[in-house]
Design a protein that fits this description.
With 166 residues, the protein is an alpha+beta fold. Helix content is 47%, strand content 17%. Strand 3 and strand 4 form a beta hairpin. Helix 2 packs across helix 4 and helix 3 crosses helix 4. It is flat, with a radius of gyration of 21 Å. The termini are far apart.
């Protein structure tokens, strides 16, 4: 018997429907600017900044003020379309797919890597919280990436050899 694989992402049409429902429920209009910002945001497969979004929109010859982009991105966060997090004290965004990931964040360079850990996911899915139903989780693990660890090790070796030479 074959098991059906669950997709890792929600389709753009489902996300757009959810956003339209959010706008209607909150008595907000669906403007051409909001539509284009949403469309461009959904094209990113990884994290992005507002500046990345403005640049993507300019490549499509769609000009909109940066303030409009910031306001719309905040609206997309409120609507649950985007998730906001900070990297090196700058806001980054990623699409919310109600899929659980673990973010591995380097404390030195700020690089973020998304990973899925089936054992941790199974553990979280088996957890029962009183009066709470989990839809997804967002865990950030802080540490040092391999590139930074290698640079730190080389720097320590270099400092040691320069001290011996003196």
């Amino acid at each position: 018997m074959q098991t059906k694989k669950v997709a890792d992402t929600l389709s753009n049409s489902v996300i757009i429907e959810n956003f339209d429902r959010f706008l209607k429920d909150n008595a907000k209009r669906r403007t051409p600017e909001r539509s284009m910002i949403l469309e461009c945001a959904l094209e990113f497969s990884k994290q992005f900044t507002v500046e990345n979004l403005v640049e993507a929109m300019s490549h499509k010859n769609f000009t909109v003020s940066q303030a409009t982009v910031y306001n719309t991105v905040q609206l997309l966060v409120e609507a649950g379309v985007l998730r906001q997090f900070s990297v090196k004290n700058r806001s980054h965004y990623e699409r919310v797919d109600n899929v659980s990931f673990i973010h591995l964040k380097c404390e030195h360079c700020g690089k973020v890597k998304l990973v899925k850990d089936p054992n941790f996911m199974a553990y979280m899915n088996a957890r029962k919280f009183m009066a709470f139903t989990t839809s997804y989780y967002n865990l950030t693990v802080y540490g040092v990436c391999n590139d930074c660890a290698r640079r730190i090790k080389q720097l320590k070796r270099k400092n040691k050899s320069s001290k011996k030479a003196k």
